[in-house]
Amino acid sequence: MSISQELYPSEADFLYEEEVLRNPNSLKLWWRYLIARSEAPFKKRAIIYERALKALPGSYKLWHAYLRERLEIVRNLPVTHSQYETLNNTFERALATMHKMPRIWIMYLTSLTQQKLITKTRRTFDRALCALPVTQHDRIWEPYLIFVSQKGCPIETSLRVYRRYLKYDPSHIEDFIEFLIASELWQEAAERLAGVLNDDQFHSIKGKTKHRLWLELCDLLTQHAKEISGLNVDAIIRGGVKKFTDEVGRLWTSLADYYIRRGLLEKARDIFEEGITTVIRVRDFSVIFDAYSQFEESMLLIRMETVDDSDDQDGEENAQEKDEEEEDDDKLDIGKLEKRLSSFWLKDDNDVDLRLARFENLMERRPELANSVLLRQNPHNVEQWHRRVKLFEDPTKQIITYTEAVRTVDPMKAVGKPHTLWIAFAKLYEGHKDVANARVIFDKAVQVNYKTVDHLASVWCEWAEMELRHKNFKGALELMRRATAEPSVEVRRRVAADGNEPVQMKLHKSLKLWTFYVDLEESLGTLQSTREVYEKILNHKIATPQIIINYAMLLEDNKYFEDAFKVYERGVKIFKYPHVKDIWITYLSKFVKRYGKSKLERARELFENAVQTVPADYVKTLYLQYAKLEEDYGLAKRAMQVYDQAAKAVPDNEKLGMYEIYIARAAEIFGVPKTREIYEQAIESGLPEKDLKTMCLRYAELEKSLGEIDRSRALLKHASQFSDPRTDLEFWNTWHEFEVQHGNEDTFREMLRVKRSVTTSFSQTHFILPEYLMQKDQMQTTLEEAKDVLKKAGIEEDEMAALERKVLPPSTTDSGAMKRLGFVSGGTVNGTEPGIAAANKEDIELPDESESDEEQEIAQREVPAAVFGALGTRKREDEAAAAAEAEDGNKNLGALERFKRMRAQ
Fold first, then answer.
1. Residue 649 CB partners (closer than 8 Å, separation 6+)
2. H helix intervals, 27-154
3. Burial environment of residue 254 by CB neighbours within 10 A (0 to 12, 13 to 18, 19 or more)
4. What single-letter DSSP state applies at residue 394?
């Protein structure tokens, strides 16, 4: 065969050919030659590779590049192409010298895997493992496992390879188990997985926990129950139930599913029953119960379908049998006899009714089973036991449940009130007319060592109430005497030696029991026996204020008044405030009601003792009672002294109310002038500022009603220092109206001056920006406000204009005068017209240095023009109207009338 001309070296190759011929063992020259001819056809490059490898057979670089180019050539060719055979031969020649190079082996093995040459590939993998050192086997095993996991590879071959691999690296057993499951080799997969779980040193490389592996084993065993043998599935799953408590429901259903798949239906039912009666969590119970009910329902449906099919066949067979019996009636046929026997009801397969009843029974038991789960969580839960009893309607089952409850519940660990179980148990017998057994139950109940004395006392009280319901009054009283009997010294000594004192030793000091006992004695016993019970309560030092009051009321109802008062005296000595308050109030009211004026000095002594020890918070009621006593039976003067003491003794927040009562009673008894002293005392007593202002306003109103205008104004001035004009508008409006009605120009200006000074003082100490901005600027107060007030009082606008014209001083209209914004004029007038301005007796005389400054100008704020709207045109009409008003001689003169008459004079 002739060689193609293209494969011969060209003139451009002569340079490289000369070099490689001169030095054929130089890898560098051959590599330069291949790079230079990188664009040449592969056949020509293959000749160069072959020549180079013949000269350098141990060059890894040349072999690797040559094999990569050959792999690239066959990439898109079918595996049956002849180029693959050439490629394989090239790999074999390369491995003759490159057998220690793992990369060459991997390239070869990957190519063989793609060619689907199973036997050759397996043998080549084995050759690679034999040729390479053990430290590089992991690079070969990875593609080897991929190869044996492919479809088409024999299962036996894959198993042998995996088993060999596990000897090399046992930590990858999870991959083997997954392969076994994928290959449906359930038996070996289960055995391997069980071996992993039994290995305490096993560590999952995939991050799986023992819990997850255990669940996988359970699923494997239950889903393929018939294919797996040799493993104790029951023991394995039960071990998981004990070890993994968070998946108990799933494990129980898995075990039942295993027996269902094995065809052991009754065993599966037993597993379901065991599961729902042992789990302690409601979630697990729900899982098992749902699976159990689904199992019973499916079995019922299957049986109903099979019965329908068998009924049709039995009908045809019975017809044939009847015909044969008519023909061969006298013949004895053993087969026919056996067939007839099998048709009896004991051999009947039609158990649909039984299965249906079983399913209904399961659904009816669900509340009881759920309650059992909660009781297994905490058998000392009293409320759950009560709910369990309510689930049953049969009295026998209720009695059994109560018996189990009182035996199970430990009173020291109980959640709830354990004595209610005994009481409900006894009431169950009582409800069924069995009082004798109810007494037996109560007798056992009172012997139980409860956690608290109150529980034992409740049992005794319920026992006594049962006796009362059945008209056994003597028995109820005897029970109470027995319950309240104090233990003997010998019993106490014995209990003290044991070191564990039961609640029965403390029962004789139970207030609940004694209260019930004394109620029984009051209703059923005699006065003497009731007094003995009350005395025992006092001796035991367990009395309450209410018991003291009840005891005294009992004696009072039976006309033992002095004995009742002695009981009150004992009560006030036993208790302190605030508990003794009700005793004192009842005692004093009863004493006053009983004796009235006959024992006044003794009553006064009682009141004095009561108010001496009482705290300030509770003194008001007693003082009012004391004052009422003096008003009704004593002296009015002493009543006023009591009120005076009360006003000083009560706390600050009640002083105002006390003084109001004091003033009202003084006014009613001695008249209104007597109240002035009380008002002055109240103002000087240190009332809170808010109450002090209220008191001053009321005092001022009183003085105004008596015609004492100056005294009233002085009180308003005193109260003004506690009233912020920015917030307390009501007070300043009151003073404003007062001055309009009863004041003059000087008093009105004095009011404005005080208002400005108070505003300044509050501005320096209490500057509240939001309120300050929301309120009207009080510093800009002028006669315009007086105009609004007069207008509201019903005075005509013309009269106001006339008043303003006469009152206002001449305004300085000098254009050069400087105006100070925000300054309110105090009414300063020019001295050039002395007849116009009235002399102010309350003017403040400034020091000499300020008088010498004669050139200083006082800026005045410009009065709004609206004030003088009708001044020019109605001047004479206003003067005539003012003169006419002055002649009326009205006795009740207001500020307007005074101004008019003063100007007329």
1. 611, 616, 619, 623
2. 27-36, 42-55, 60-73, 82-98, 102-115, 118-131, 137-148
3. buried
4. S
> Above 60 in pLDDT, residue 716?
yes
Q: How far apart are CA 247 and CA 215, in angstroms?
A: 9
| Confidence (pLDDT) at 769 | 41
E-assigned strand segments in 574-648: none
Three-state SS at 902: helix
Q: How far apart are CA 290 and CA 372, in angstroms?
A: 17
Q: Are 793 and 740 in contact (CB under 8 A)?
A: yes
pLDDT value for 878: 59
pLDDT for position 839: 42
Q: Per residue in 784-799, is it b (16+ CB within 10 Å) or e — as a string?
A: eebbebbeeeebeeeb
- Looking at this protein, which amino acid is placed at residue 713? R
Q: How far is the C-alpha of 868 from the C-alpha of 199, rounded, in Å?
A: 113
Q: Which SS3 state, helix, strand or coil, does residue 242 take?
A: helix
The dihedral through the CA atoms of 826, 830, 835, 840 has a sign that is positive
Rg of the chain in Å (alpha carbons)? 58
Instruction: Please report, to the nearest 10 degrees, the dihedral formed by the alpha carbons of residues 23, 24, 27, 32 taken in order.
Output: 80
The C-alpha atoms of residue 467 and residue 436 are separated, in whole angstroms, by: 11
Q: Which two tokens stand for residue 442?
A: 């109560």
Residue 563, amino acid: D
Pair 577, 615: CB distance under 8 Å: yes
Q: Which residues touch 109 (CB under 8 Å, ≥6 apart)?
A: 121, 124, 125, 128, 140, 143, 144, 147
Maximum Cα–Cα distance across the chain: 167
Instruction: State how far the Cα of 658 lies from the Cα of 130, in Å rounded to an integer.
Output: 115
The residue ranking higher by pLDDT, 808 or 17, is 17
Cis amide bond preceding 651, omega within 30:
no
Tell me how far CA of residue 155 lies from CA of 126, 171, 229, in angstroms: 18, 22, 21
3-state secondary structure of 525: coil
Yes or no: say if 507 and 513 are a contact pair by the CB < 8 Å rule: yes
Cis preceding linkage at 578, omega within 30 = yes
pTM greater than the 0.85 cutoff: no
As separate numbers, helices (DSSP H) first and strands (DSSP E) second, the chain gives: 46, 0
Distance CA 334, CA 340 (A): 10
Q: How far apart are CA 258 and CA 412, in angstroms?
A: 44
d(CA 400, CA 322): 55
Question: pLDDT tens digit string along 322-370?
Answer: 555 544 544 456 766 666 655 554 455 567 778 888 888 888 888 888 8
pLDDT tens, position by position, 101-148:
889 888 888 888 888 888 888 888 888 888 888 888 888 888 888 888
